[in-house]
Task: structure prediction
Amino acid sequence: MIVERTSNEILLKVSPNIDKFGIQRVVEYLEYLEMTSHFKAKQEDADKLADELNENWWKENRDRFLK
Result:
């Protein structure tokens, strides 16, 4: 693997032998890092929000799965 850094980007060069699924996971993680780089929230705040959203979703959709 080769990593090159310029003034406005980072270039990663990898072997074409790496499977597509593995590359896709890396790309998605890098996209996540890029999208969240300007957020100032702590991980524990994000975890709490995710728990609240999951709990609300389950309350709204429980009947669809438990019959």
